[in-house]
Design a protein that fits this description.
2 copies of one chain form a homodimer. Chain A has one domain: Farnesyl Diphosphate Synthase, CATH 1.10.600. Chain A is globular, with a radius of gyration of 20 Å. Chain A has 16 helices and no strands. The first copy, chain A, is 78% helix and 0% strand. In chain A, helix 2 packs across helix 5, helix 4 packs antiparallel against helix 16 and helix 8 crosses helix 9. Chain A is mainly α. The interface between A and B is large, with 49 and 49 residues.
Amino acid sequence: MDDLKNKLVSMLKDDLAEIEKALSKNLDPYFDIVSKVAGHILFSGGKRLRPLLLILCARLCNHSGENLPYFSTVPEYVHAATLLHDDLIDEAKLRHNKPVANSVWGNSIAVLTGDFLLARSLAISAQIGNLKIVEVIAEVTQKMSEGEIFQLYKKGNIDLTEEEYFEIIKRKTAILFEGSCKVGAMMAKASMNHETNLSTYGFNLGLAFQMADDLLDYTSDTKTLGKNIGTDLKEGKLTLPVIIALKNATPSDSSVMKKIIKDNNFSDYDFNILVELLNRYEGISYTSNKAYEYILKAKEAISMFPMSKTKEILLMLADYVLARKM
Amino acid sequence: MDDLKNKLVSMLKDDLAEIEKALSKNLDPYFDIVSKVAGHILFSGGKRLRPLLLILCARLCNHSGENLPYFSTVPEYVHAATLLHDDLIDEAKLRHNKPVANSVWGNSIAVLTGDFLLARSLAISAQIGNLKIVEVIAEVTQKMSEGEIFQLYKKGNIDLTEEEYFEIIKRKTAILFEGSCKVGAMMAKASMNHETNLSTYGFNLGLAFQMADDLLDYTSDTKTLGKNIGTDLKEGKLTLPVIIALKNATPSDSSVMKKIIKDNNFSDYDFNILVELLNRYEGISYTSNKAYEYILKAKEAISMFPMSKTKEILLMLADYVLARKM
């Protein structure tokens, strides 16, 4: 796994450097304070998957490439904006253990900086000069915000269905991956067929990415993940491993699980019991298999493209999404 | 004054009805919950000045008019989004007197619904089919968010200058008024000259509107205004009446004022002293005169248009902005 990551990073070194440069340059705020706050979220070790997808898909469709890093900032700014607004929401449950004054100042700045990034991404996307591209970005951000509202509305709901889970991760992650690939293809003036195929690649990659992310919350450890495991559950977010295990469990094991889930301050001991039950009732394996299926679909979607270095990278990215440990 | 308002409402009755219909229809959310929350802020008695400006300016430039109500929702959604995100910020100082849990749920929903409205407005503006219009809206929202961040950054700063105050109200209010007028002119394919003049009208109207708004916080009463007077000050927002009075006051009166300003929980008695000083040191009259100057500039900007019912309404709107009591 680390080999795959290192190989990818080395193959993408130049692109990643260009993306970093563009992300910083394109912020272009009127007030210094804006660039300080936006920079804080933007330059905290993101993987830059969305800008990479835009660039790689455009390149696969023979885009010459000069202005790609510039415009690849669009989906990353959207992503950073949603992170800023998500952090606010996720902070909510922690609020009780924290001095309120701090988090209030933080929240306000976070929200406004998110707004700035959202507006900035749309302003930059308008510069591409293709109205259809602006429509894609505006629709993606609209659907993402609806998805977040739906997720919030369902927070703490122990009866979340598999279907509702997919609706959430589709909107939360898959449509921005899809949009990044689609915009790349559109910038390259690709055929409708190629545009559709690359959109399908991105969409399925996004679903698998989010499922892998949700799995890590139960299968990783705090040190590797860089944040506490079990966090989703503490925030009241039911993800697929839990949904499936709850469905498959005996009534008695199901109520053990529900008791732990409903307790926002479950102990490590309880959490380990839960993880064991997620394994026993195939919540982990089911999710993992599903993610694998979506990765296959993503790869299948780009099968009509002749092999090239760029295609190889897109295939490797798909493997990386499934295998990543953080 | 009430006569002017009644006359305007009666002349604009049909437009206002069309705007209300479009605001509700255009929300078009995937989840019912989104329309519920967005509806809460959208249908709470707004004056619809921004949609009206778009429609009236388009009409002044001979736009035939059919799709105007539909597209007039764009600036109103932007406005509602900023209100939602402002409420969050303004709530901050009140938080201490309120149960936190309530306001947390409210904040999250408010932020996400604001995001939805922002994205929706850009998606609708893209439907107009003119990339330049999207650019206007994206740039306006970008500048507005920067202005909000700047205002937040300056909150509680007793040394705010007149120049900084104008930078804030320009971004907070004037550029969206300007943008509404400009988009109206662009939709009508007006000449560059007419577009510029209508933009100037909107910009100056917006400045005057915000100054009048800031004045009301000291000159109105709670019942008429529908919210507590002195609120700006309690939230740490220095506005022009205070800035000017502080500049003109004797050192001893200046420190009396500063003491009241710095006390977030000033009494009615203290507030009355402050208002008296704002009057004595010409903070009120200076602001009022400035607002009047901008209204004159706004009217002057549309002088080249021949008299018509629409022009008459735009002139009346300018008078209304200055004379309004709530």
